[in-house]
Specification:
4-stranded mixed β-sheet, alpha/beta, 27% strand, 9-stranded mixed β-sheet
Length: 462
């Protein structure tokens, strides 16, 4: 390259040489490379096992339709600049699991907290993750111990798969594209009696399917990370499976041998697959998974944009406030015919009696930016679609995917609009999550402020 530049300086003048240098720099940055490691480990539970996400189930599962997985993707610019993304085919991580994994990985590899994203597909056909939604279960001692043991092993498995990926780093190329699939629909239906879980074809949705392609230096596909914003709950089933997200990953891996496909959950808190299944059928889940896989495959085969360094990350925690605690409400719920209200009331009043009523919860917000090419904004818990739409509009220069169900899942995160409308997500769901609720009116403002902090810290401009 030096000889070429020298020749042009001597023979063609400064202008031509500058044009050539700029062109060579552009070509080099367009084919920029990272060290990438990818790995997976099965996290399929032993059967019989109680499944989660549906209070109507009255027996444990005794059949495995397909395996569940924890998968890790490590993208490294250099030893000090890397991002670790873990996806899991489960309902969501508990705070205990998330903190255990985080502490161990930070100690093992010296990373910053902002360099680790733990995401769950919010699978409603997977095992109980203790104590997530524990108020909804009526387990005997043996079943509860089995759930606790599975959750403890899950933490070990996540650390193991990260270690596998880090020890498998090799030079790769990254590129980004987008597809679209339309089976997600808003479930917040307005009626004369208020908002119910139903079908709202006019409600907000985000059908974007971001596709991060990971290829070796010969251009061969090695891994793919894709996302979608929709509840991973197509049908109520007694068979262990990964629902549509699991089927989509299987389809992609069948079509692309030796490739690891990873699903990253979006803001699907108020989004459901449509139509939904009745009974224990998984036919619709399989069909939706195939549709999503086809959209990803189409994007992989289109012209993608290169993803370049640097990798910039930032992580912050903001405290979300609940409305003022009112013990009268919970004393009344003690005599309710709803056993879940009774359980929640006992839990709240016991905390109140001990002087530790729940007033706030810490909420994590995380940004990962690859140059100006691709941004993952990672939010914890069950986030409604308004946040995805609002943040994409707020940062129009960013090629952004807003991921939810990151790091831990403890409750729904309503927007200002959803909070005002009421219904399941901002109110009733708090019963099953064992929280007082609803959140204070400033919840959206606090989250958007935290997002502005992490985005500014990673160099984003509005």
């Amino acid at each position: 390259m030096k000889e070429i530049v020298k020749f042009y300086f001597n023979k063609a003048g400064i202008l031509k040489s500058l044009i050539l240098v700029c062109f060579l720099i552009y070509c080099s940055s367009s084919s920029a490379q990272f060290k990438v490691g990818v790995a997976r480990i099965p996290i399929t539970p032993e059967i019989p096992v109680w499944l989660t996400g549906d209070v109507s189930r009255n027996k444990p599962s005794t059949e495995i339709l397909h395996d569940l997985w924890a998968k890790a993707l490590v993208i490294e610019e250099n030893e000090k600049s890397r991002i670790i993304i873990v996806t899991t085919d489960i309902i969501g991580l508990s705070r205990n699991i998330s903190e255990k994994v985080t502490q161990r990985v930070i100690k093992m590899y010296g990373i910053d907290r902002s360099q680790l994203i733990l995401n769950s597909s919010h699978n409603h056909s997977g095992p109980i993750i203790w104590p997530v939604l524990s108020i909804t279960y009526n387990l005997n001692n043996a079943d509860q111990q089995a759930a606790i043991q599975y959750s403890e092993k899950l933490a070990d498995d996540i650390v193991s798969v990260i270690d596998m990926a880090i020890n498998n780093l090799t030079m790769m190329q990254l590129s980004i594209g987008h597809g679209s699939v339309s089976f997600a629909i808003n479930r917040r239906e307005s009626t004369d009696k208020g908002v119910i879980i139903g079908i709202n074809p006019d409600g907000p949705v985000d059908h974007d399917v971001p596709v991060l392609k990971i290829s070796d230096l010969n251009g061969k596909l090695r891994a793919v990370l894709f996302g979608y914003a929709c509840h991973n709950a197509t049908s109520s089933t007694y068979m262990v499976n990964g629902d549509y997200a699991g089927f989509a990953q299987i389809e992609l891996e069948k079509s692309n041998p030796d490739v690891i496909a990873m699903f990253l959950s979006g803001c699907g808190g108020d989004q459901v697959p449509f139509p939904r299944g009745i009974g224990i059928t998984t036919i619709l889940a399989s069909q939706f998974g195939r549709s999503l896989a086809n959209a990803v495959q189409k994007a992989l085969e289109s012209k993608l944009l290169p993803v370049r360094p640097p990798i910039q990350t930032h992580f912050t925690i903001t405290n979300l406030e609940f409305t003022p605690f009112n013990p009268k409400i919970f004393r009344k719920e003690l005599s309710s015919s709803d056993i879940y209200k009774q359980k929640r009331a006992r839990l709240m009043l016991e905390s109140y009696k001990q002087g530790r009523e729940i007033k706030t919860i810490p909420y994590s917000v995380q940004a990962v930016r690859f140059n100006n090419d691709f941004t993952i904004l990672a939010l914890s818990d069950e986030v409604v679609i308004d946040y995805s739409l609002t943040l994409k509009k707020k940062y129009p220069q960013e090629n952004m995917f807003v991921a939810a169900y990151c790091n831990e899942v403890r409750c729904y995160i309503p927007s200002r609009r959803v909070l005002a409308e009421g219904g399941y997500e901002p109110e009733t769901s708090m019963i099953y999550y064992g929280l007082p609720g609803p959140f204070a009116d400033n919840i959206e403002d606090k989250i958007l402020h935290a997002v502005d902090q992490v985005m500014k810290s990673t160099g984003a401009k509005r």
